[in-house]
Automatic annotation (TrEMBL):
It comes from the Bacteria. It comes from Magnetospirillum fulvum. SUPFAM superfamilies: Homeodomain-like. This is AraC-type DNA-binding protein. The lineage of its organism: Bacteria, Pseudomonadati, Pseudomonadota, Alphaproteobacteria, Rhodospirillales. It holds the Pfam family Arabinose_bd.
Amino acid sequence: MEKGTISISFVDAVLDGVRRRGFDADEMLEQVGLSPALLSHPHARVSSDTYTMVLRLIAQVLDDEFFGQDSRRVKIGSFAMMCHCVIACRTLDKALGRALRFFDLGLDDLRGTLSVLDGQARLTLIEREPDAPARIFAHETLLMFVHRLACWLVNRRIPLLWAGFRYPQPPQVEEYRLMFSADLRFDQPATTVAFEPRYLALPVVRTAQSLKAFLAVAPENLLVQYKDGSSLAMQIQRRLRALPPGEWPGFDEIAGDMRLSVSTLRRRMEAEGQSYQAIKDQLRRDMAINLLSDTKLSVMDIAAELGFAETSAFHRAFKKWTGANPGEYRRTVRAPPPPGA
């Protein structure tokens, strides 16, 4: 099972909507087993399951499937109603037009437009107050909602050619390569993603019967399941997950297994903004976070399971990955329940 982790930056961003509505963000973190102290570690990460719980709790408390990121609430059930409307469309361009119309009606501060320009289909976000600082999480959320819904409707991945954003490069920029595209542009006139226009003519193949399973995990999971399963990085991750970390092959062996020369594999990975060492580090990091969060294994046993010859080496690596040592991190993801709970 591919169980990744999410940057604490996204947790902090979604909590902004909670704070603006006057709710206690720290209390919400504690309800899902996270200590507010985790927010003070800018490199910290949480399991994807925990992040989904945070999103679901916020949506329920605020009765808002846009997580308090707009002046108007998108009441729970709105996304499902929109999906029931778009599922009847014959082609993706019609479905996207209807989905964007729905968000235009449901949101006050942000809306999306679809156009074809210079041989590219472009989804552009337009703000009610374009001179105000961009609400980054709102931009991320609307783009991911629309793009992942589009992929689901046609039952295939729609690769983004490039992604541009109206705001400066955020700290979690590495996540953007997975969320959107390897070609990232910041400080742009408007937030825009582009893809090949031929996808607009694809038929909507999903049915009302398949919609039920989709809605059981949407919309929260649309903000989590953003890995491109066809990318080289994900192909390599799947190969590594099948082996104990201590038995992971060298780069030359990986290239041979994939029937590519070493130079070709390295060049293609660089085009994705990845390297073999980074993939191994990311995978070990995610495995460590999930083991610390979901098991009672000792730190020494976790270090051994991840292929570290010495526990001290694991401590150093984990500190570099998250800004905290393993024991400290385990305490922050197992926060005590609030008084009276």
